[in-house]
Inverse folding.
């Protein structure tokens, strides 16, 4: 073409390049093709308007199904879509392979897509070569589909967040597998690390509790709900210069950050990092997006399950009392293990009640059922028993009143649900700690057992009556026994005896053997009894151990001591590290005030208020210094670590400017230049660390100056 001649029409250029054009409106179901696109589809080389069915008949069925998914992905990510399609003749044979690139938009009002794209023929790779494992031959597609089926099945079977993360870490994607994974959640206005893989312990520190406004890919994904693909370190550095230093030392080459979205709500982000370059083709993005959707669904299910379990666990804990203060001359230990079925709440309970006479009562019982109804009745019955006992009634009167109370509640519900009749077994023991006298009333419950000083174990038969709630006028006679010094009494629900396929007889023999052979203290004995059913347990056990049980377990042990020793419930509390991360952009100077407030909240219980004021002042100086004297944004990382009273506060402000701060000697009327002077005067340690790009200014204060040596660091 000579200079000055008019440009040819677009259609002529595309035709010369053997490239056709097509347009698809899913609302009308019509596809318009130009002459070249029609020729490539095996139709007469004329512009035509075709139905979806006509176009579909010309494409391989698997490829047609692929197009819909890629269109949705392109719209979701705001990118161009690309697919390879096998074009068939009337006999169903592949006559050519085409590549189409297109732009798609979604009409929210019509709930339809408008798609415009190009179509050109490509050379099909030779089967059996490395180039042959592409979507064209179907080998790569079949591998991908098999992978997604396996991944979906594994994620669907994961029952907890930990299991979901283990499955995600073990996923081996066809053709490209990340070596570093991280799952971010959202708490308030901050990112949290739900779990990670391929990193060292502690690597997650700077990314924990990062503000959502921070210039970090995962934060942007959560804010916008759109995926971020970074195919090289240069692209990461250019797009996120402020937080690039946090990712640089991992030596990764490509990153994909995808939203975890459920029911239109972005609940977090998933990072897949690669040690080798990844181009993130439409096929690869499609796989990553599909995995992210399945991962979000699995995490949502796990979160709902764990929330329900936490709720019911808290309900059960709130219904079961603590054993209260030590009793002179006696020790008490208790265990409760809920059933593994349903919501993990049931009708078993125990209680220890101080009495007006100076004695105390031990109560253990079992409301029929293992559901919320049983747990609710258990809570109400326990409160009623405490009220009757606190009024000073004898054991028989307490159980009589409780039976009448439960009868009134359950029979009142029969008008609504005739099958909802419930009863409860119960054992009530009034204990005199001075004499060791035990007054026992029993309502259909297993008898107590006594372990004597020589290790002999005997069941103590006691008089009893009907379970509570059956007969409002039932009598509950009292049996008195004496607990001698060194003896231990066991009372429990039938779950301890019968679980594991045992009946009352064989189960009791198992329990008696444990009582006879155990020489440890009371807490160890309580653990051994529960261990005999399903293995190691804590004071309150849920999860996989409880899942192997058929019934709830409640156990109470009472020992009369000779030396008056009590229980030691001291628990060592490990200090935690507090941390906050946030960015302050040049265009957001008002966030300096937010940063000051965040630091004050981080130091809310710091021993020295003057040090808090100093830290806030120094933070303000360092942040303002970045905003005033550089063109860069600032990243704040503040943390508090150590034991209360001997803690360390460290504040670090990072920016991308290579200009190092210098000490100046401002005059009396100068409005600036005192930043480093203040840091040197107020901080107990400080410094400036140059980085590959930029620098970091840090300072430290110590809650106890004697805990760590003080002294100012020198500028590099």
């Amino acid at each position: 073409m000579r200079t000055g001649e008019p440009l040819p029409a677009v259609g002529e250029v595309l035709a010369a390049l053997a490239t056709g054009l097509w347009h698809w409106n899913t609302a009308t179901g019509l596809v318009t093709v130009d002459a070249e696109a029609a020729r490539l589809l095996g139709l007469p080389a004329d512009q035509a308007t075709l139905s979806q069915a006509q176009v579909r008949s010309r494409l391989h069925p698997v490829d047609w199904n692929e197009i819909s998914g890629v269109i949705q992905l392109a719209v979701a990510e705001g990118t161009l879509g690309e697919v390879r399609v096998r074009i068939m003749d009337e006999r169903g044979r592949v006559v050519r392979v085409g590549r189409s690139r297109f732009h798609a938009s979604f009409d929210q009002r019509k709930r339809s897509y408008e798609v415009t794209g190009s179509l050109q023929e490509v050379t099909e790779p030779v089967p059996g070569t490395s180039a042959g494992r592409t979507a064209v031959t179907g080998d790569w597609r079949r591998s991908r589909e098999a992978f997604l089926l396996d991944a979906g099945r594994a994620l669907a079977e994961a029952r907890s967040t930990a299991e979901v993360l283990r499955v995600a870490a073990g996923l081996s994607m066809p053709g490209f597998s990340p070596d570093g994974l991280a799952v971010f959640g959202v708490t308030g206005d901050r990112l949290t690390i739900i779990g990670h893989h391929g990193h060292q312990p502690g690597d997650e520190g700077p990314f924990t509790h990062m503000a959502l406004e921070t210039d970090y890919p995962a934060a942007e994904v959560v804010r916008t709900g759109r995926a971020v693909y970074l195919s090289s370190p240069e692209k990461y550095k250019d797009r996120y210069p402020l937080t690039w230093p946090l990712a640089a030392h991992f030596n990764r080459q490509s990153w994909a950050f995808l939203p975890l979205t459920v029911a239109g709500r972005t609940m977090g982000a998933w990072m897949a990092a690669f040690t080798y370059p990844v181009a993130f083709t439409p096929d690869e993005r499609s796989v990553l997006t599909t995995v992210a959707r399945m991962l979000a669904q699995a995490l949502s299910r796990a979160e709902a399950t764990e929330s329900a379990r936490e709720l019911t666990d808290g309900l059960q804990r709130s219904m079961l009392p603590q054993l209260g203060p030590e009793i002179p001359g006696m020790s008490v230990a208790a265990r409760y293990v809920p059933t593994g079925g349903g919501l993990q709440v049931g009708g078993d309970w125990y209680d220890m009640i101080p009495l007006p006479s100076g004695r105390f009562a031990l109560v253990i019982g079992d409301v029929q059922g293992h559901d919320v109804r049983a747990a609710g009745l258990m809570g109400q019955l326990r409160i009623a028993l405490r009220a009757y006992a606190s009024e000073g009634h004898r054991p028989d009167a307490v159980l009589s009143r409780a039976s009448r109370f439960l009868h009134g509640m359950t029979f009142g519900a029969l008008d609504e649900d005739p099958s909802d009749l419930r009863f409860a077994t119960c054992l009530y023991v009034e204990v005199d700690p001075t004499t060791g006298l035990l007054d026992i009333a029993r309502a259909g419950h297993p008898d107590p057992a006594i372990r004597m000083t020589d290790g002999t174990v005997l069941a103590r038969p006691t008089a009893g009556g009907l379970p509570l709630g059956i007969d409002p006028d039932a009598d509950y006679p009292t049996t008195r026994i004496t607990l001698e010094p060194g003896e231990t009494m066991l009372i429990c629900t039938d779950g301890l005896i019968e679980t594991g396929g045992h009946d009352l007889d064989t189960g009791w023999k198992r329990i008696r053997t444990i009582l006879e052979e155990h020489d440890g203290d009371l807490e160890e004995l309580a653990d051994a009894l529960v261990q005999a059913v399903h293995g190691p347990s804590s004071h309150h056990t849920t999860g996989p151990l409880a899942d192997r049980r058929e019934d709830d377990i409640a156990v109470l042990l009472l020992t009369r001591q000779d030396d008056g020793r009590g229980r030691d419930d001291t628990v060592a509390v490990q200090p935690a590290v507090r941390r906050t991360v946030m960015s302050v952009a040049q265009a957001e100077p008002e966030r300096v005030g937010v940063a000051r407030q965040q630091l004050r909240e981080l130091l809310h219980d710091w021993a020295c208020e003057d040090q808090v004021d100093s830290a806030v002042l120094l933070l303000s100086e360092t942040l303002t210094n970045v905003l005033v004297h550089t063109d860069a944004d600032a990243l704040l990382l503040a943390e508090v670590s150590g034991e209360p009273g001997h803690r360390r506060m460290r504040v670090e402000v990072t920016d991308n400017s290579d200009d190092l701060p210098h000490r100046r000697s401002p005059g009396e009327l100068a409005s600036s230049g005192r930043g480093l002077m203040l840091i040197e005067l107020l901080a107990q340690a400080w410094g400036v660390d140059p980085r590959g790009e930029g620098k970091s200014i840090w300072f430290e204060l110590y809650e106890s100056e004697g805990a760590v040596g003080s002294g100012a660091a020198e500028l590099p």
Summary: The chain is about 35% helix and 25% strand. The radius of gyration is 36 Å.
